[in-house]
Specification:
The protein has 387 residues and is an alpha/beta fold. The protein has three domains: 146 residues, NAD(P)-binding Rossmann-like Domain (Rossmann fold), CATH 3.40.50.720; 132 residues, no CATH class; 70 residues, RNA polymerase sigma factor, region 2, helix turn helix motif (Rna Polymerase Sigma Factor, Chain: A, Orthogonal Bundle), CATH 1.10.1740. The protein is built from 16 helices and eleven strands. The chain has a seven-stranded parallel beta sheet, with helices on both faces. It has a four-stranded mixed beta sheet with strand order 9-8-10-11, covered by helices on one side. 47% of the residues are buried. The model has no long low-confidence stretch (mean pLDDT 97). Bound molecules: nicotinamide-adenine-dinucleotide (NAD) and magnesium ion (MG). The site of nicotinamide-adenine-dinucleotide has 27 residues, from α1 and α10.
């Protein structure tokens, strides 16, 4: 029986690479459902090719045109809206849900997928940043495995295979350092969104590329690692590793370190999440160990304030990581549209964290309310910049 996969965010960077993996292993995997937010034309093309049982377009404004594009494919059911995402993930035939949408919007469908006992292949790290405690509790309660797709967490996960209950002494979480790694703070003051969108080693969606440039992405990944592997953040060391070859490592009680290496290619962690514990062949480039040296540096938290803020949010716990995420979603978008500067991003997130009401409970509704309140506060601050 082929495994039935639902891809949330199939038109994005992770989504399209996942379809590539599925195509390469069409004997093992089948697409059950594809979803997108706005790109209905791409979604229709994907549906024509992969013939899923259903497609969902989150933005309801695109429902009619999407239906028209697919009106000669009666085998593909078309749905629209956020509620349809929550519903489709629990369809009985689905074995795995790949969460590859961006931001807070991924939280609700992920919760529904866990409640329906679907294996989660998690790319949407914001879900764990916002609601790590709740998600872990639910996954445990419903006996649902969460397989990391983020390359660093996949590397950690791969390093832990066979280690059973052996204690983790330290997680070594690598970071490329982004395009501004060697810039002074003064130089960072003047960078544009176009500069930030030129990632040195990975090709990804726009939001995560900006997060990588500010190193908020690494801050998120520290939080993600804490929840996925049950390790306190003090035991997670960020290493700036500009080559992006060592995808992360784990140090054990005897000082031994296990790492996973390879060329930067997200298809490997995506495929591993699908096939675990098996490894399947993957066509593509192989790492040439003679080609370049491997370097490691300490991150500069003074320069990359967002990374420091992520540690602070985690230290405070409760809804603070949710505040961190929502404020970041606002400033990330504002920066991409030229409405705030690169350094404004960290400053606004910091001020928003001081202003939004703190709540230490871990309920879904608290996260929804916190997300909404934070967006209001952060948007207001972005607005004030222009006055
Ligand atoms: P992307 O922008 O390329 O694609 C996002 C996808 O999600 C699209 O299909 C889009 O239609 C959909 N989407 C966006 N907002 C939505 C909303 N509000 N409701 C419903 N659907 C929505 O993003 P990406 O780079 O593929 O990243 C996806 C997720 O994976 C992010 O959480 C990111 O942090 C994580 N991730 C990405 C990479 C990477 O290499 N791209 C690596 C690690 C983790
Ligand atoms: Mg990553």
């Amino acid at each position: 029986m082929k495994k039935q996969i639902c891809i949330l965010g199939s038109t994005g960077s992770i989504g399209t690479q996942a379809l590539d993996v599925i195509e390469q292993h069409a004997d093992l995997y089948e697409v059950y459902c594809l979803t997108a937010n706005n790109r209905y034309k791409e979604l229709a093309e994907q549906a024509r090719k992969f013939r899923p049982a259903a497609v969902v377009i989150a933005n309801e404004a695109h429902y009619e045109p999407l239906c028209q594009l697919l009106n000669d494919c009666p085998d593909v059911k078309v749905y629209a809206g956020k509620a349809a995402l929550d519903e489709i993930v629990s369809a009985t035939p689905i074995d795995m849900v790949l969460t590859a949408m961006v931001g807070f919007a991924g939280l609700s469908p992920t919760i529904h997928a866990i409640q329906a006992r679907k294996k989660i292949c998690l790319a949407n790290k914001e879900t764990l940043v916002v609601a790590g405690e709740l998600i872990c509790k639910l996954a445990q309660q419903h006996h649902v495995p969460i397989l990391p797709v983020d390359s660093e967490h996949s590397a950690i996960f791969q390093s832990l295979v066979g280690e059973n209950d052996n204690e983790i002494e330290k997680i070594l979480l690598t970071a490329s350092g982004g395009p501004f790694r060697t810039y002074t703070l003064e130089r960072m003051r003047h960078v544009t969104a176009a500069d930030a969108l030129k990632h040195p080693t990975w090709e990804m969606g726009a939001k995560i590329t900006i997060d990588s440039a500010s190193m908020m992405n690494k801050g998120f990944e520290v939080i993600e690692a804490k929840w996925l592997f049950g390790v306190p953040v003090e035991k997670i060391q960020v290493l700036v590793h500009p080559q992006s070859i060592v995808h992360s490592a784990v140090q054990f009680a005897d000082g031994g370190i296990k790492a996973q290496l390879g060329v930067p290619d997200m298809r490997l962690p995506i495929q591993y999440a699908f096939s675990f514990p098996e490894r399947l062949p993957l066509h593509g480039q192989r790492l040439d160990m003679f080609k370049q040296p491997l370097e490691f540096f300490e991150p500069d938290m003074g320069k990359f304030k967002c990374l420091a803020l992520a540690y602070e949010a985690m230290r405070q716990g409760g809804n603070m990581p949710c505040v961190l995420n929502a404020a970041n979603e606002v400033v990330n978008e504002a920066f991409r549209h030229g409405k705030c500067s690169f350094l404004d991003m960290g400053n606004i997130i910091e001020k928003t964290m001081q202003r939004v009401s703190y709540d230490k409970s871990s309920q879904f509704q608290i996260y929804v309310d916190t997300d909404a309140e934070t967006r209001r506060v952060a948007e207001e601050m972005v607005h004030e910049l222009r006055r």
